Amino acid sequence: MVSGLTRVSIGTYMAATSLGIIPGSFVVAYAGRQLGTISSLKEIASPNVLLAFTLLGLLALVPILYRKFAGKSV
Questions:
Q1: Residues of the domain holding 6
Q2: Which of 1, 7, 16, 34 could bond to 52 as cystine, CB 3.0-4.6 Å?
């Protein structure tokens, strides 16, 4: 709703939203699929589950890394 108060065009808003949502959707879907395959405590440390957790952690770091390397203060 706040985007309606800014001067950002609808095309720019839609493109930026899509670029931001699509990678996150794939990571969350992959993590959910891997967590759904766990049937015993032993499978929590499987490579696929650990990769899913790693991808979730990296996804959370993207805004921080962007701000650091882009040199912009938001």
A1: 2-70
A2: 34
Q: Are 43 and 37 in contact (CB under 8 A)?
A: yes
Distance CA 71, CA 6 (A): 23
Q: Where are the alpha helices (DSSP H) in the chain?
A: 10-36, 47-70
pTM here?
Answer: 0.64
CA distance 41 to 16: 40
Residues comprising the chain, all counted: 74
Question: Distances in Å between the alpha carbon of 60 and those of 12, 21, 40, 63?
Answer: 23, 13, 27, 7
What 3-state DSSP class applies to 51?
Answer: helix
Report the interhelical angle of 10-36 vs 47-70 (nearest 10°): 150
